[in-house]
Design goal:
It is a single chain. The two termini are about 25 Å apart. This protein is an alpha+beta fold and about 190 residues long. It has helices spanning about 10-15, 20-35, 60-65, 75-90, 120-125, 125-130; strands at about 40-45, 55, 65-70, 110-115, 140-145. The chain is built from six helices and five strands; from the N terminus they run ααββαβαβααβ. The chain folds into two domains: about 1-35, no CATH class; about 40-189, no CATH class.
Protein backbone atom coordinates (compact mmCIF):
# COMPACT_ATOMS: atom_id res chain seq x y z
CA UNK A 1 0.00 0.00 0.00
CA UNK A 2 1.36 3.44 -0.90
CA UNK A 3 0.84 6.72 0.88
CA UNK A 4 -1.20 9.54 -0.56
CA UNK A 5 0.96 12.48 -1.74
CA UNK A 6 1.06 15.39 0.69
CA UNK A 7 0.51 18.54 -1.36
CA UNK A 8 1.37 20.87 1.55
CA UNK A 9 4.93 19.58 1.91
CA UNK A 10 7.71 19.64 -0.68
CA UNK A 11 10.19 17.31 1.04
CA UNK A 12 11.53 14.27 -0.78
CA UNK A 13 9.54 11.78 1.23
CA UNK A 14 6.21 13.54 0.68
CA UNK A 15 6.98 13.90 -3.02
CA UNK A 16 7.60 10.14 -3.23
CA UNK A 17 4.62 8.35 -1.69
CA UNK A 18 6.03 4.99 -2.82
CA UNK A 19 8.47 5.19 0.11
CA UNK A 20 6.37 3.46 2.74
CA UNK A 21 9.03 3.16 5.47
CA UNK A 22 10.89 6.50 5.72
CA UNK A 23 13.16 5.26 8.53
CA UNK A 24 14.36 2.27 6.51
CA UNK A 25 14.76 4.47 3.43
CA UNK A 26 16.83 7.04 5.37
CA UNK A 27 19.03 4.34 6.89
CA UNK A 28 19.66 2.85 3.44
CA UNK A 29 20.55 6.28 2.00
CA UNK A 30 22.97 6.97 4.86
CA UNK A 31 24.57 3.51 4.60
CA UNK A 32 25.06 3.98 0.84
CA UNK A 33 26.64 7.42 1.31
CA UNK A 34 28.99 6.08 3.99
CA UNK A 35 30.03 3.23 1.69
CA UNK A 36 30.67 5.66 -1.18
CA UNK A 37 32.08 8.73 0.61
CA UNK A 38 32.89 7.78 4.22
CA UNK A 39 30.10 9.80 5.82
CA UNK A 40 26.76 11.51 5.22
CA UNK A 41 25.52 14.93 6.34
CA UNK A 42 22.00 14.85 7.75
CA UNK A 43 20.13 18.17 7.90
CA UNK A 44 17.03 19.13 9.83
CA UNK A 45 15.13 22.10 8.45
CA UNK A 46 14.28 24.76 11.00
CA UNK A 47 10.90 26.31 11.52
CA UNK A 48 9.48 29.64 12.59
CA UNK A 49 10.56 29.11 16.19
CA UNK A 50 13.41 26.64 15.82
CA UNK A 51 16.73 26.92 14.00
CA UNK A 52 18.03 24.35 11.53
CA UNK A 53 20.86 21.94 12.33
CA UNK A 54 23.04 19.42 10.56
CA UNK A 55 25.36 16.62 11.59
CA UNK A 56 27.51 13.88 10.15
CA UNK A 57 26.95 10.14 10.31
CA UNK A 58 29.85 7.86 9.41
CA UNK A 59 33.03 9.74 10.39
CA UNK A 60 33.37 7.49 13.44
CA UNK A 61 32.63 4.31 11.50
CA UNK A 62 34.93 5.09 8.59
CA UNK A 63 37.84 6.96 10.23
CA UNK A 64 37.36 6.83 14.01
CA UNK A 65 36.90 10.60 13.97
CA UNK A 66 34.24 12.32 16.10
CA UNK A 67 30.97 13.02 14.32
CA UNK A 68 30.26 16.74 13.77
CA UNK A 69 27.22 18.91 14.54
CA UNK A 70 26.46 22.51 13.54
CA UNK A 71 23.38 24.52 14.47
CA UNK A 72 21.80 27.63 13.01
CA UNK A 73 22.98 27.27 9.40
CA UNK A 74 20.94 26.46 6.34
CA UNK A 75 21.57 22.98 4.98
CA UNK A 76 23.81 24.02 2.04
CA UNK A 77 26.19 26.02 4.23
CA UNK A 78 26.17 23.41 6.99
CA UNK A 79 26.90 20.62 4.51
CA UNK A 80 29.81 22.59 3.05
CA UNK A 81 31.31 23.32 6.50
CA UNK A 82 30.89 19.78 7.83
CA UNK A 83 32.26 18.17 4.66
CA UNK A 84 35.21 20.59 4.64
CA UNK A 85 36.11 19.88 8.27
CA UNK A 86 35.48 16.15 7.86
CA UNK A 87 37.70 16.03 4.77
CA UNK A 88 40.55 17.89 6.41
CA UNK A 89 40.38 15.61 9.45
CA UNK A 90 40.18 12.49 7.27
CA UNK A 91 43.33 13.70 5.53
CA UNK A 92 45.16 13.86 8.87
CA UNK A 93 44.74 17.44 10.06
CA UNK A 94 44.51 17.64 13.85
CA UNK A 95 41.81 20.04 15.06
CA UNK A 96 41.87 20.26 18.85
CA UNK A 97 38.72 21.41 20.63
CA UNK A 98 38.57 25.08 21.71
CA UNK A 99 41.15 26.04 19.04
CA UNK A 100 40.11 28.27 16.09
CA UNK A 101 40.10 26.45 12.76
CA UNK A 102 41.37 28.48 9.81
CA UNK A 103 39.94 28.33 6.30
CA UNK A 104 36.36 27.31 7.04
CA UNK A 105 34.81 30.79 7.14
CA UNK A 106 36.27 34.14 6.05
CA UNK A 107 37.71 36.42 8.78
CA UNK A 108 36.71 37.94 11.12
CA UNK A 109 34.52 34.87 11.65
CA UNK A 110 35.98 31.77 13.24
CA UNK A 111 34.91 28.26 14.10
CA UNK A 112 35.95 26.06 17.02
CA UNK A 113 35.01 22.55 18.06
CA UNK A 114 33.44 21.70 21.41
CA UNK A 115 32.54 18.22 22.67
CA UNK A 116 28.82 17.41 22.69
CA UNK A 117 27.30 16.09 25.92
CA UNK A 118 25.76 12.62 25.45
CA UNK A 119 22.28 13.55 26.62
CA UNK A 120 21.60 15.61 23.46
CA UNK A 121 21.79 12.56 21.20
CA UNK A 122 18.15 11.52 21.40
CA UNK A 123 16.76 15.00 20.68
CA UNK A 124 19.13 16.22 17.99
CA UNK A 125 21.02 13.26 16.53
CA UNK A 126 18.33 10.73 15.68
CA UNK A 127 20.11 9.24 12.67
CA UNK A 128 23.28 8.77 14.74
CA UNK A 129 21.21 6.84 17.26
CA UNK A 130 19.69 4.69 14.52
CA UNK A 131 23.02 4.07 12.84
CA UNK A 132 25.23 3.35 15.86
CA UNK A 133 22.64 2.13 18.36
CA UNK A 134 23.98 2.20 21.90
CA UNK A 135 27.64 2.61 20.86
CA UNK A 136 29.14 5.67 22.59
CA UNK A 137 30.22 7.72 19.58
CA UNK A 138 31.99 11.05 20.22
CA UNK A 139 30.38 14.13 18.67
CA UNK A 140 31.83 17.63 18.42
CA UNK A 141 29.91 20.83 17.80
CA UNK A 142 31.20 23.26 15.19
CA UNK A 143 30.64 26.57 16.95
CA UNK A 144 30.76 29.71 14.82
CA UNK A 145 31.55 33.26 15.86
CA UNK A 146 29.79 36.54 15.25
CA UNK A 147 31.31 39.43 13.21
CA UNK A 148 33.55 40.36 16.16
CA UNK A 149 35.00 36.86 16.55
CA UNK A 150 32.96 36.20 19.72
CA UNK A 151 31.29 32.86 20.40
CA UNK A 152 28.18 32.05 22.36
CA UNK A 153 28.13 32.42 25.36
CA UNK A 154 30.95 35.07 25.30
CA UNK A 155 29.95 38.43 26.79
CA UNK A 156 29.08 40.77 23.93
CA UNK A 157 28.17 37.97 21.49
CA UNK A 158 25.81 39.43 18.86
CA UNK A 159 22.19 39.12 20.08
CA UNK A 160 21.00 38.46 16.51
CA UNK A 161 22.74 35.09 16.63
CA UNK A 162 22.06 34.27 20.29
CA UNK A 163 19.56 31.40 19.86
CA UNK A 164 20.85 30.03 16.55
CA UNK A 165 23.44 27.74 18.17
CA UNK A 166 22.90 25.45 21.13
CA UNK A 167 25.41 24.99 23.94
CA UNK A 168 25.70 21.24 23.43
CA UNK A 169 28.75 20.95 25.68
CA UNK A 170 26.37 21.54 28.59
CA UNK A 171 24.05 18.83 29.90
CA UNK A 172 20.55 19.47 28.55
CA UNK A 173 19.12 20.44 31.95
CA UNK A 174 21.88 23.09 32.37
CA UNK A 175 21.23 24.67 28.96
CA UNK A 176 19.50 28.08 28.97
CA UNK A 177 15.79 27.78 28.17
CA UNK A 178 15.33 28.57 24.48
CA UNK A 179 14.35 26.81 21.23
CA UNK A 180 17.10 24.21 21.69
CA UNK A 181 16.02 23.08 25.12
CA UNK A 182 12.30 22.81 24.41
CA UNK A 183 10.99 19.28 24.16
CA UNK A 184 9.54 19.65 20.65
CA UNK A 185 12.85 19.31 18.76
CA UNK A 186 12.88 15.53 18.95
CA UNK A 187 9.56 15.20 17.10
CA UNK A 188 11.11 16.71 13.96
CA UNK A 189 13.24 13.67 13.05
Amino acid sequence: MTKEPNSSCSCYLCAHPEIVDPTAWARAQIAAAIADYGWQVVSVIGGKKSPPWSYTVGLWQSYRLPELFVGGLEADDACHWLNHIGGRRRDGEVMPVHTPIEGIVPPPHQVVLRPVHDNWRVDLLAQLELHYGSEAVPVEQVLWSDHDGLFPPDPGFDRVFRNKQPFLWLPKDSHPMNAWRKGDLSIRR
